[in-house]
User: Fold this.
Amino acid sequence: MPLSEFANLSISKIITHEIFKRGNNKEIISPVLNDELTVLNQDGLSTLADRIVAAIGKDSKSIEMSIRDNSQTSVFAYAASIFEDDRDDNFIEKSKDIANKLVNAQTSRNLPGGIVILIKGTSRYGEYDLVLVIKAELQSGFKKSNNNDIEFVNNLLLTPYQKMYKLGVFLKKDSQYRVFVYDHNLSKSEEQGLSQYFYDSFLGLKMLYTNKFLTSKFYNGTKQFISSLANITDEDKYDLNTHLYSYMKNEAIITISLVDFSDTYIIDADIRDQYITYMRAEIFNDMDFNRSITKDISEIKSKLRVRRIVFSTGVKILGASDDFEQNVQIINQESNENNEVQTILKVKGEIKGS
Assistant:
């Protein structure tokens, strides 16, 4: 479902520039910068607006962030100037500054060139002013010619099925700003795949530490820690994971914290210390995380619906998480005479199918 902030997107100004990947010695290849606005007819403007809304309006591939860099040479400062000064020449000059900033942010030769598109407009029936930056990679394809033949085209961009682009948008309402980033690589459930050079080095943004984001970090980080433990049995790991599920699903628990979870469920004092150290250093390494947070499981809800046990042989047992703890019990795990590990389970209920 499209995010409501981008409903009724209307475009007033567009300009495009071309940037290139770095040379063999990582030297900067000068971009091709336009001095004139891009002109599209009404059909083109409507189609472009629809493509943008289809991308950044999809909650699974876009994320709200916060502004880290507000210096005079930041993208935010250039966007603020565009908001304040509506002249075409100011828009053109600030768009060049933004394109050059992306050129400098792309320090790796693995990062491709492409077209930088800068857009000024409004959304939500004029409620928001917006400045939008797109980096789109060029593609090749075919188009139908007038005589019904097909013609090869090697510089297509922003087609309906193209995924190779990134997008950042600054929204302004009164004197308040909001920022969203779209990245086709983004996995929303864990905020993985978001290109750091684009949102950090280029746009000057950082993660917006909402309760749902921190809850997701807590849950995924705790599971990683449990999986990494080498000095406890698989049964103990299963028990810890069961406690984690219960901790996250229990509606009576409104806030969560590292200390509360570890003191309640981790018996061994050394492992408790390892857990706190691991979570603060490896999972919450870029933030001060010494507090309780309001639990918000909306980003991990799908992971909490199903519990699973995976065996070394590839066999899996799945079940609804609400019933798993009461219906599945690990009795014992031992090695037989052939040194093969065997696990004895007790499952409540009769076999209904296979």
The longest helix spans residues 88-105. The CA atoms of residues 20 and 113 lie 4 Å apart. The mean pLDDT is 83. DSSP finds ten helices and 15 strands in the chain.
